[in-house]
Amino acid sequence: MPAKSAAQQKAAGAALSAKRGETPKSKLKGASKSMLSMSEKELEAFAHTKREGKPEHVGDK
Length: 61
Fold this sequence. Notes:
mainly alpha; 3 helices
């Protein structure tokens, strides 16, 4: 499932980094912290979405 916004893609990247042990989980906040319950495969799908043409946040016009 691709990310719907650049912010969602960035949050998934941060959560994926923490899940892999590259970043301390204590550094996460907001959406990235809540994404930790997702599988690594799901996070990869969100994080590897191209940002081009995506709004910064869902709901932006």
